[in-house]
Design brief:
The chain has helices at residues 21-27, 75-87, 128-132, 149-158, 167-175; strands at 4-8, 14-20, 30-39, 45-50, 61-62, 65-68, 97-108, 113-125, 141-147. By secondary structure, it is α+β, with helices and mostly antiparallel strands. The chain contains five helices and nine strands. The protein has one domain (4-175): Alpha-Beta Complex (Nucleoside Triphosphate Pyrophosphohydrolase). The N and C termini lie far apart (43 Å). Strands 3, 4, 5, 6, 7, 8 and 9 form a seven-stranded mixed β-sheet that branches. The chain has a two-stranded antiparallel sheet with strand order 1-2. The protein is globular and about 45 Å long.
Length: 177
């Protein structure tokens, strides 16, 4: 069964209806998503390399964990769900530290995939035991990569085409360095 997502106007306000994920991206409807940046106890940041089978940005380094916010849900609950689904990590909503809200408009796949979204960005810290228990969802991602802030900055400057572009997220990460 296909996921349904609440629809927004261009100002991020609810339009009080939902649409299927397919319709959302075919028509470029505004919607909400969540980004979660995972850190270990040494301050390293977890990036996922997206599955080569993904419809958008296959094979690129991306947010530790991200996903759509299902109709009627909120970003914290969606974040907890995505952490469990994509990384096998069980957290409570209170474990997610809200950082900021942002938005972007992207046209992909020769115009057949329109991504207009507002997204809430969170940080979550993992214990050593949780890092050891990471269990990546193979349908979503190819591999996991840990970078120090400096390693991330260097790679981003040297090879920006390796990353899904998240301008505001990257500004936050760079400020940590």
């Amino acid at each position: 069964m296909e996921e349904y997502i609440d629809i927004l106007n261009a100002h991020g306000e609810s339009l009080n209806y939902s649409a299927s994920r397919t319709e959302v991206h075919a028509k470029g409807l505004w919607h909400r998503t969540v980004h979660i940046w995972v850190f270990d106890l040494n301050g390293k940041i977890l990036f996922q390399k997206r599955s080569l089978k993904k419809e958008n940005h296959p094979g690129l380094l991306d947010t530790s964990c991200a996903g759509h916010i299902s109709a009627g849900d909120d970003s914290r609950n969606a974040g907890v769900r995505e952490l469990a689904e994509e990384l096998g990590i069980i957290k409570k909503t209170d474990d997610l530290k809200f950082l900021f809200e942002s938005k972007h408009e992207t046209v992909l796949n020769n115009g057949s995939y329109l991504d207009n979204e507002y997204y809430d960005v969170y940080r979550v810290d993992l214990s050593l035991k949780e890092v050891e228990m990471l269990s990546p969802q193979k349908s979503e991602l190819e591999s996991l990569h840990w970078f120090s802030i400096k390693e991330f900055q260097t790679l981003l400057e040297k090879e920006p085409s390796l990353f899904v572009e998240h301008t505001e997220d990257f500004k936050y990460l760079k400020r940590l360095g």
